[in-house]
Amino acid sequence: MKYDILIAGVGGQGVILASRMLALAAMKAGFHVSTAETIGMSQREGSVSSHIRIGDKVSGSLIPIGQADLLLGLEPAETVRNLPFLREGGKVLVNTHAIPPASRPPGSPEYDPAALLSFLCAYYPDILCSDFTELADDVGTYRAANVAMLGAAAGARVLPFEEDILKAVLDAEIPEKYRAVNDAAFERARKCIRFISSP
Amino acid sequence: MLKYYPEFEMSLLTDKKLLMGNEAIALGAIEAGVQVVTGYPGTPSTEALETIARYANRCGIYTEWSSNEKVALETAVGAAYSGAKALVTMKQVGLNVASDPLMSLSYIGVKGALVLLVADDPGPHSSQTEQDTRAFGHFANIPVLDPSTPQEAYELTKLAFELSNEFEIPVVLRTTTRVSHSCGDVEVTVAEPSPVEAVEEGFVKDRRWTIFPKLTAERHPWLESLQGKLSERFSELSFNSVSGSGKIGIIASGVSALYVKEAIETARGFKELFTLFRIGTVYPFPEKAALSFLKGIDRLIVAEELDPYLEEQVLQLIGKAHLPIDVYGKKNGFFPVSGEYNVDIVIDSINRSLAACGENLRLSHASSAVSREKLPPLPIRAPTLCAGCMHRTVFYAFKQAAKQLKKEAQTDTIFSGDIGCYTLGNAYPLNMVDTCLCMGAGISLAGGLFRTNPKTKHVAFIGDSTFFHSGIPAVVNAVYNGADITLAVLDNRTTAMTGHQPHPGVGVTVLGNVSKAIEIADVVRSCGVESIRTVNTVDPDSLESCVKAAKEAMNFKGPSVIVFKGKCVGITKPDKYYKIKPEACTGCGLCIKELGCPALTLTVDKPVIQDSCSGCGLCAQICPSEAICIGGVKL
Questions:
Q1: How far is the C-alpha of B412 from the C-alpha of B407, rounded, in Å?
Q2: Which helix (H) or strand (E) holds B601?
Q3: CA distance A62 to chain B (A)
Q4: Angle at CA A137, nearest 5°, toward A133 and A140?
């Protein structure tokens, strides 16, 4: 068994937390796990990604090009940026909520989220898109978009372990103060995606 | 004896944890009985000391963030001379700062044990160099261990303490970003860290602790003979392992070994084609084990990030043993000489080597539906100062002050930066860093620039933690030799870039104990600086006073210092946020063009302020239409 997940986003969106939750769940499910995160200078509003490698064997933490089974995109442009890592027929879940870059240095292309989303749909017609930031904001805080996307992945049945394991990890790891709102974000996204992705 | 993966003994006591490489190192050190831990924060090494600090009180471990890496090492040396087990943590460039004591220490050796965690940063992701600590170990005659996973990092940490104690020599545990900052499932032998033994021996006076030319001359032969003994020992360890039985050999260390493993497994019958030699104890090179591996192959591929260290070692060995083996590595262009590796780079490099040695076999890449070339243009998202960062206000103030001086007196200004969050002052649109070299260099560099550009104004920026790290000698030099420079200390009360560690100016230690807070203004006053100002950046109308102070300091003849006091938005809660009144905003976009604040974004025609606003009010102070005002209280 080998299952590679890539989470892409912008510094501050909670990519590292989401990555840790998936890694812990995979471990509880009895797999080896290896993750690579962006920590340090590029965290400051830069593009960040986390590679989570789950399997029967220990491997290096970076996913090779074309090998990710699942791409969780917390932001449209960052999803597209990491698309080459996804294998043919891989799954994409994308948060349509765009974060424009802080400044546009001379020569930086215009950011057109709609065009990028149609690009994604052209290559991966069964992509699952939603504004998870708005969804999270509705249940309490936009900051829970990362956990909402975990709920969406559970809802789409694309994780290599039971969703109960992931739920248990979230309950154990998220501080009590924030648990209710994260739980709500997870559940709403899970149900919403389960509804649209079930035949 | 030799296994593909070092297999770790499982017992009922073991526990499986998800650990970052640095956390695994911390737990390994505690299990080894570490008693004194020192270090200076630096990505990607920081979390090791932070993890130990969490257990320090419970386990009885003395832990400190020292003022710099040289001080950290010397402190640990004092402990190790007294028979303690000590650990020092730093990033690769930190070892340069600590190299003076380290080079002497190798001759003297230690009692107890002394392990240095040094984290290299291929890429680099968050560093100013791509130096290779394996080569540094070779240079300093100090053994170097090179783990490939958090599990191996945990095991090799324990080995490092054993070796240091047995051979009375400091040992370097060298990691890279993908080991230190990778998380993995780690089988630990002790589920919860338990208290370490107290230091029993104490310091025993002996001439061996006082370096002197005569002592060095006596010790040098010991140091050289030790290299041979360690090489012998390393040849027996299962951290150096051979797998496969093919005639094409591949040698690799650290995380590159895992990339090789994954790359060759794409080939059918790879076990008969290749023989992989993984090295976990890189210096002194395990010659005996390497020789037995080399005798079974006829061609050799070397896969390693950074320096061609293993390549040079095997070339030497092949020459010494007169072996007829062609070597494919960095030196003859088959592998990239720089940058971080991954499976795809390793596949391409091995394929180039296979083609050159006449093999038909090629390793294959996985195929993605969308290649990089097919991607539409994407916005550039460079790292940038946080929304509301005090540094932005100070940079912008100096930019205005320099503009005014240029207008009034045709004087140009050169801005020298330093290492920390404020290096990001170089980013568009601030463009306020003209030079940046290493920790503390900005001040002395400005002094040198003054000697050669006397008609220009020279401003150096330095952070609070960096000031204590290596800024003070440069201030002393500027005063002593009369350099006409202005120093701006950006005091946000924390070591921000590495994740908010305390420092000597904060008044608290890593263990949360209250300590004497050293006032930066007092330090520069005692160094003899005559023009000193302390300026508050927190008030929402601080820009004007910052510009005024900057201009006055730049006009002062001789060294001048301004300490800008503020807060780091990464660890403080904002109390308010700003908003743009659409009816008053003319859509000139000045706030966006001038500041590059990530909270400001352009919608269709007018800027808006996003949730990330932390209420610094800088944009409100520069808006020509007074269209930006406090939007409300942040809860």
A1: 10
A2: strand B600-602
A3: 7
A4: 140
